[in-house]
Amino acid sequence: MSKVDGALQYVRHFSKFGRSFRIQKQHPHLQRSESVKPQKAIPALEIASRNLSSFQTQLLIFRQLFDHISSTYTYLLACPRTKECVLVDPVLAQAKRDFQITQDLGLSIKYSVNTHMHADHITGTGYLRVLSGCKTVISKASGADADIHVQEDDEIAFGTQKLKVLSTPGHTNGCVTYYSPEQGVAFTGDALLIRGCGRTDFQEGNPRTLYRSVHEKIFRLPTATLLFPAHDYKGLTCTTVDEESRLNPRLSKTEDQFVKIMNNLNLDYPKQIDRALPANKVCGVYDIPQNP
User: Which residues are in the Metallo-beta-lactamase domain (predicted)?
Assistant: First the structure.
């Protein structure tokens, strides 16, 4: 991302006449705003290539943060009224950065949550708990330690906002998606990536289970729902239910075709798996820095 792109701020506005986007481009040498109504037909990669890394409405403050080593996205969501916030899938190496951002914005971290027990990086939830006193959250099915364990239909409330828990196993048996019906956004973890999905060959993964999770849970959300994954390796930031149901090269196929693809990936194991899994099983409080 260039310095100019990093300075852009995208603000979503909702009206009784339908959803529209006001794109406020803020830069030391540029300030311009325009209103854009999305077209009925969404061209390939129109949404996926759009940078929605930062926006604020009267109802929600949003930041999409990135860890370059693990290509992991962390999401900060906050209620502007109460200043309570949630961090989704924080990375230990970036926990100080994330905490500082909340301080800069005058926010209080209420929850630090994981979509699943990660194998490619150590979660920052435990360290953020040390720094802020927040509660840590992960699914009950993950088998990992946390202050709060969630399952299907549970809700995580922060201020006037809430995230609904959808059980979406398959990448691991403990994967969940966090969905905000009010804002029309979902955080899919590794269950669904932009034009891809998480692997299914370890941590009790199962390709049939993943296929059904995506098709029966995520793809049944409203088609305009914005989907934010836990990873991206090509510089894309978000997608939609409509795009992925039509264009995902794996999950747009039949279930049997998908299973065959996933069973023949032959991927190397994540480099940090031997450190990440033991640490993440105890909420990332393994090898954390001793001096906040």
Answer: 71-231
